[in-house]
Structure formats: C-alpha cells, structure tokens
Amino acid sequence: MTEIFYRRLVLGLLFLNTFLLAAVIGGGVYYLSGEPRQSAQRLPLAGEQLPGQQRQALQQALAEARRALRSTQLEARQARVEAAALMGKPELDTAALSGALTRAREAEMAVRAAVEARAVAFAATLSVDERRRLADGLIGREAPRPATK
Predict the structure, then answer these.
(1) Averaged pLDDT of the chain
(2) For the chain, what is the domain count?
C-alpha cells in the first residue's frame, strides 16, 4: 500500500461523502419545505370527495363487485396470455389471435359493466350533495392537465 493509493482513497471518499451530504441536505430541505406533494402518476379516485364512511362503503361495494367477477377477470387474463403466446409463434394465426383478443375484451367489458352497475346502485343511496361530490371526482379525472416539458 503506497502513499498514492491512500491519497486516491481519501480523495475518492471525500468526493463520495460530498455527494452523500448534498443528497441528505437536499432531502431535508425538500421535506421541510412543507409543500403538499401528490404524485403526478396517481389518478384521483371518484370517491375521494365523499365523507369517510361513504368513501369506505363505496370502495367496499366496488371491491365486492370485482370479487364476485373474479372468474371473469381470470378469463380475461387467460385470453390476454393466450393472445401473447399466439403473437410469439413463428406462424401468426390471425383468426385465433382475434378470437383471444375478443374474449379478453368481452370479459373486461363484463367486469366493467358490473362494477359500473354497482356504482350506480351505490350512488342511488347517496344524498344530492354527496352525488355532486362524486360527480366532481368523476369530472376531475377527465379534466385536461397542463402540458409538462
């Protein structure tokens, strides 16, 4: 172990510690800034504007509807897997591929229709004000977002 080795080691560690210290300070400033942070990837849920009990009841009702159609969801997933397998074969069987995609689409639409029917049934139990909140959440999902650079 030579003096040059130790000198390079110390310089490398100083360099690394400088970046680590800057990262810790930057994270602390970001945390202490107190600005509310919301992930840009996350879509708002329609029931978020409802009071706590109603929101939980809506989420439970929708989860029950999806749970009841678990076999249909599995059929859709299996059809998508089958379609992917067909696309990977050297000889493409377009009829079989179209059939698999059609089965997947129909199963997914059946699940969506059942969940939407359950949401409509739940909305019928809400007051006018709560339905307006629910509608605002639905519109908020579709509102145009500002362009990012």
Answers:
(1) 82
(2) 1
